[in-house]
Design goal:
It comes from Fulmarus glacialis (Northern fulmar). The chain has about 160 residues and is mainly α. The chain contains eight helices and no strands.
Length: about 160
């Protein structure tokens, strides 16, 4: 019974987190929050969102050229960037290689493994973010995060 309750609560947390990533305001706040925790984490939020847009594009039955352009844009931005490091998200290099090998295969699943990896990584920060957010009025969240980022930058320079 206890295990079932735990699973139920975690699945509802997963659903809440997914909804948060799809909400522009919450996703932006969460992105700023995780940017303080690791260099590639904020890119992870953007990657997850772009893959969702890509999957929506696939399901909307638009032309192959548009789908291919979106694949190329995601790869050029996150998987094989001209800006070092080439891999701009926190996924294993094998996953990145697999995506590059399958980049010509259209369909909603090309980024599936990578998106799941990123989701699992970001999800670890969700409870901390919820706790942080619960102590602040919604209009103060970004201000507080900016202040923290400023402190972190000054520490790096100092």
């Amino acid at each position: 019974q206890h295990v079932d309750n735990k699973w139920v609560s975690s699945s509802s947390e997963i659903i809440a987190f997914r909804k948060a990533l799809l909400n522009p305001v919450t996703a932006n706040q969460f992105q700023r929050f995780v940017s303080l925790k690791g260099d590639l984490l904020e890119n992870g939020v953007l990657f997850w969102q772009e893959v969702q847009k890509y999957k929506d594009l696939c399901h909307s039955h638009c032309d192959d050229a548009t789908v291919q352009k979106k694949i190329t844009a995601i790869i050029d931005c996150f998987i094989n960037s001209t800006v070092p490091p080439a891999l701009q998200i926190d996924i294993p290099t094998e996953q990145a290689k697999k995506i590059l090998e399958h980049r010509k295969e259209l369909g909603p699943y090309i980024f599936r493994e990578a998106q799941m990896t990123i989701f699992a990584l970001l999800f670890k920060f969700w409870p901390k973010f919820c706790k942080f957010r619960s102590n602040l009025a919604s209009d103060k969240i970004l201000l507080d995060l900016e202040r923290k980022k400023g402190k972190k930058m000054r520490k790096k320079k100092g």
